[in-house]
Amino acid sequence: MAFKPRTTAPNKGDYYWYGGSPFYPSYGMPNCTTYAWGRFWEILGERPKLCTGNAGTWYSYTQDGYKRGSKPALGAVACWAKPGAAGHVAIVEKINSDGSIITSESGWKSSTFWWTSTRSPNNYANNAYIFQGFIYNPAVSSSSNSEDNVLAKFLQVARSKIGQDGTWAWATSGLSKPQPWCAAFVVACAKAVGVLGKIIPADYGAGSLCRTGVANGWGKFYKGPWHGTNFKPQPGDMIVYRWDSRSSYSGHDKYYSDHIGIVESFDGSIVHTIEGNSGPGGSNEKRKVVTHNYDYTYSCINGYYRPDWEKVGGFVGGLGSGSSGYIGPLYDYENTKQDSIIREIGYLNSSSEPSIKTSDIKLSVVNYTSLFTAMYNAAAPNVLGSSSYIVSSDLDLSNVESVAREIVKFCMTKGLPSSSGVGIVANIYAECSLNISSGPIIDSNGQYSGGMCMWNGDNWRAFLKFVGSDWKTDLSGQCEFLFHYIDQNYSWYKSLVKRYYGSNLGLVEYLSHLPNTEEGAKKAADVFVRCYERPAKMDYQSSKRQGFASDFWKKLTPILR
User: What are the strands, taking DSSP E only, across 82-170?
Assistant: First the structure.
């Protein structure tokens, strides 16, 4: 990305440091970890995996997957430790010609909310604190910080419009208001960075944009799951969708699509997108630029148009997770024949150290993907220092993990964090024990109810009409109905969110802003039961379902990640 240093303090209501921060509401700013975590997120463009403990533990927390080193880099976290104290972290905003750096930072209980410091290259000293090193932000390229990377600029423009309506897209692209503007948003971003008519055509149709781009030799088109192909995208690809079934394919070419967005990143399984004219609202004037997360096997992904970014000076390297094609998941939940293979990798020497020199003691490895979750659950209480990480004995997930996982993954395709998906799963578990074929049952008033949310009365009839006669085996159809119904009754659910939480966001929007943590999962369970399920004894049910959410979070998170 084109790195832009922060020269002013963040606003006290900015989402990076408040609503979305894992440190808030326990505490916010002034605080060094709250600020550094939020600023790293702001630069990265996606929720970071940084440590959420004291500052002195950040550098040793290598589970985040970010590279570390002693050489300063823009956007990196500078880390210090102090014996008997919590340590300190700051963000590198500028590297001077003399080797000194300028950092932005905050401090616990400081009288100053935010400040910048110039630090000498002499160990970047911070009084009695011990400098540990830098945690590098993968969104910032090592090549002059990607100032000349037009692809990075294109993505940055798209990110800067998140939350806005279509006003900018209509005005910049030339499309007249209030026409559908998903493609116009892509055109406007391309125009803003000077690549319109070079690698991205000025087309206002989702499919025609891809078709024209390929016809002009400006890029390539790759078929997606809608065609039966699970293609793995990269940042800067255009993603297009078809909402109809394959049976209605006749009369359209492979490019024909109903909607288009921009791939921001790909982590090996989930496609992270920025899309105009999306989200709830019902009309082109009310929809906004939003982010979404889709499983790359999502059946409605028609394909991807990949502009020839190299032709205009764009490159993928340094754009964050998945930027070098893709990064696959570290652990998978599937077992293969390779799982039973033991591989010799070396020997132990006389000092009991690994060695390549032959000895009588061989070192071998075995694929441990299927064991990792069990190891995590067994070790978590010791590693994390709390017995609260043990899944409660009254929740048996042995037969429902796959259903729960798929529901969470579906929720992520709708732009929700996995925590909100877990909160919804907790509610569904309370309704039907995740038996999606539950029902139909008849109550004392002669009303039918069934399905994963035990829809009843008019909702039951609407559910049957939407999903069809095979609803008992159609998990994706039931999930689609859930979100369809929420969108169809957007104003009603928005009023409930306002009543209970004082927010002006719609239900899905509110859930999309919850932190991706265990507490976020519990909050999502509370939101969903109060605003959607609305059972009798609401407070009791909320407490019960929050407990389920906590258990599901601990059980599913190792699998999902």
Answer: 88-95, 101-105, 115-119, 130-135
User: In which residue are the tokens 């979404």 written?
Assistant: 292
Look at phi and psi of residue 163 and say left if phi exceeds 0, alpha if psi is from -120 to 50, else beta: left
pLDDT at position 353 is 75
Q: Which amino acid is at 340?
A: S
Provide CB contacts within 8 A for 310, sequence distance 6+.
none
pLDDT tens-digit readout, 418-431: 889 999 999 999 99
The angle, 0 to 180 degrees and rounded to 10, between the axes of the packed helices 182-192 and 206-215 is 50
**pLDDT for the residue numbered 369:** 45
Q: What is the largest CA-CA distance in the chain?
A: 81
**Collapsing DSSP states into helix, strand and coil, what is residue 189?**
helix
Instruction: Set out the domains of the chain in order of their start, with CATH numbers.
Output: 32-140 (3.90.1720.10), 148-312 (3.90.1720.60), 337-366 (no CATH), 401-560 (1.10.530.10)
- Helix, strand or coil, per DSSP, at residue 361: coil
pLDDT digits (tens, 9 = 90+) for 259-309: 999 998 887 788 999 999 998 777 899 999 999 989 888 989 999 999 998
Find, among 262, 252, 258, the residue nearest to 305 by Cα. Answer: 262
Q: Is the pTM of this model over 0.85?
A: no
CB 550 within 8 A of CB 515: no
The answer to whether residues 450 and 429 touch, using CB atoms and an 8 Å cutoff, is no
Q: Which residues contact 118 (CB under 8 A, 6 or more apart)?
A: 96, 100, 101, 102
What does each C-alpha distance from 531 to 345, 420, 501 come to in angstroms? 55, 14, 10
C-alpha pair distances (Å), 20 with each of 42, 105, 324, 400: 11, 18, 28, 30
